[in-house]
Amino acid sequence: MHILQEGVKVRSEEAALPQLLPTTMVGAYPRPSWFTYQLDGRDIREAFKSLHHEEAFRDAVRTVVGEQETAGLDICTDGQMWFDDYATGIGSFFWYWFERIEGFGHEKLEHPARSLVQGKDAFTLDESGGVAVRGPIGRASLHLADLYRIAADVAHRPVKACVGAGPLQLSTMAHFESGPIKDRFDLSAALADVFRTEIEDLVAAGCRHVQLEDLGAWVPNVTRADRDFEWVTSTVDRLFAGLPEAPDGAAVERCWHFCLGNAWGSRAEGLTRGGYGNVLPRYFDVPVDAFVLDFACRGMADVAVLRNLPTDKGVHAGVIDVRNLEIEQPEQVAERIRAVLEVVPAERVTLTSDCGMKQLPRTVARAKLASLTAGAQIVRRELTGEAE
Fold this sequence. Notes:
By secondary structure, this protein is α/β, with parallel strands linked by helices. The chain has helices at about 45, 50-70, 95-100, 120-130, 145-155, 165-170, 185-205, 220-225, 225-240, 330-340, 360-385, and strands at about 75, 130-135, 160-165, 175, 210-215, 255, 290-295, 315-320, 350-355.
C-alpha cells in the first residue's frame, strides 16, 4: 500500500487480545542504527519523494513493530520512526508538531520558564527549548493517518497511535511574538482543533487505540491555580469528547499519558513534585477510557491513587522503568503488577512501559519488553489458575 493510498485497515487480531492484562508500550522505540534518514522539518509526503528514504522508513517500521511482536506485546506502536534525532533523548517529540503547523517559527529558542528553574529541571528545559508564535495557527501537514497505515500494513497485532506532545504542553513552550494568539489558553485551543482533526483521521483509517501524550496535566501542580485544572480538562474534552467509532462500529480506546518527564531519562522533578496524587483525581471526569501512568521509576509509590479510580476508567500501568538500563526480571515485573492489582481489578488494567524507549539501546528495549510480557504471563496464570 503506497503512502498516498486511502483505505481502512481493521485487524481481526483485535479480537485475540487477552481478556486479562494486555501488554503495550508508550510510543517511541529505538531507531535501528542503519536508519539514519531525518525529516528535518519536511512533510513526510515531500521527504518520501526520495525512494530510498521511504523504503528505509518502511523497513524501519517493519523492524520495530516486528521486535515488539516478537517480545509478545498485544498492542504495538509504530515506534515513531518519524521523530528525528533531536535533543532530549526523545527526539522531535515537540518539534514534529511545531515544524508542521503554520504559525510557529522553526528555530529553537530558550524555554519561556528557563529563568524560574535550576538543577536537573534546568537541564530538561535547556534540552526542550522554546518556540516563537508569529501568526495564526493554520494548516498542518502532520499526516498521522498515513503514518498509522504504514505500521498497520506490516503489523499482525493492533497498532496504537501515540499523539503528542499535545496542545497543553506545546502551549507552555511558546514565546508570543506576533499574530492574533497572545497566551497559552488561546494557543492550546487552536492546537486542540488541529489535533482533533488528526485523531478523527486516525479513527477513520481504522485505528482503535489512540493515546494522547501531554504533560500539560502537571501545570496546575506548579501554578496552584484552579483555572488551570479547568484549562486542562476543557482541552482534553475538546480532543476526545464525542469521538466517532471505528469504521467497523468498534469503540476506540482513548488514552491519556502524562509521564514524569523523560529527558535522557531525567524526571521533571519540580513539575511533578508530589506525584500523581496531586493532580490525577482532578481529571477523573475527563472523556478518556484509560490513564497511562509511570509507576516503575518511583518504585510503584503512587499506585494508591488508583484506589478511587472511577469504574468507567482503566489504567495502563507502567511496570517497566525506561529511565535506566536495568533489565527487569519477569518476577520483578510480576511483583509490580501485583501492586497495581491490589487497588484496581485486573479487568481494567493494561500493562505498559513507563514512557517511550527511544533513548535506550535496542538490545535493552527488546529485553525489557520481553520481561514485561513474561511478567504479565506469570500474573495471568496466578489469576486464572492456569498451569505453566
